[in-house]
Amino acid sequence: MAELQATAAATEIPEATGASPDAGSDQPAKIAARNVNVFYGTNQALKDIDLDLGGNEVTALIGPSGCGKSTFLRCLNRMNDVIDICRVTGRITLDGEDIYDPRLDVVQLRARVGMVFQKPNPFPKSIYDNIAYGPRIHGVANNKEELEEIVVTSLQRAGLWNEVKDRLNVPGTGLSGGQQQRLCIARAIAVSPEVILMDEPCSALDPIATAKIEELIDELRGNYTIVIVTHNMQQAARVSQRTAFFHLGEMVEADETEAIFTNPKDERTLGYITGRYG
Ligand SMILES: Nc1ncnc2c1ncn2[C@@H]1O[C@H](COP(=O)(O)OP(=O)(O)OP(=O)(O)O)[C@@H](O)[C@H]1O
Fold this sequence. Notes:
One of its GO terms (cellular component) is plasma membrane. The chain is of the alpha/beta class.
């Protein structure tokens, strides 16, 4: 089990008021990170990250390879816990609640903060069971009818229902790559998360499947807070309302996406978006 320390006392850290330099609105942040440092053994992957993630919008995390985007994303639902050499310090709150509080139930946290990975990873089960799995273990449905309703609604929301409604019993692994990724999004939705983390969700997909996922992200943001790691700057510009630029383990700047791409404040951001490095 990873050694996790939420060392910074709440009093030392500005609370998530939405008024921090990177905050985009007057609304309190859905997720607020303060003084977050991450170490893999002796290697420090993230340095003093302060970042607010607003509710019902898409935040893109961009930056050169190895700058710590995925590491930061994994901090948000404690996926780094499963990496033995990983140590996280600082404070991350979800609706003001410290997600590294030892009393917090991590399984519940991961239901509230779902994740979609780079490579679609459906379970080797039927399409139906891929979606029903989460609600079953979380006891979300009271009976078979309610479970069916969740399966149908989740597939509809993920834009996959029409393509699979006649073959819910076939293995999810038999779908195309793009369909599998939408199945994984449906699976994440099925447990009614508040936040969906996406780690380069389109990198294994062709342009048509990518466009479908991007459309879906845009539709989902009305109901969920979405954080997406992407290497594709056009994608960040298309799907996100806010963008945070990471470089060598630092969060250099975060702002409205348009401002980051048209008028970045930091030379390093300018260098990255103009293709000088990365
Ligand atoms: N499981 C791990 N064990 C050890 N070091 C790791 C691990 N995961 C990431 N790192 C290191 O942490 C740093 C940040 O990596 P991370 O994958 O978060 O960056 P990234 O910006 O997401 O990169 P990419 O865009 O290439 O996916 C790198 O130096 C990487 O080698």
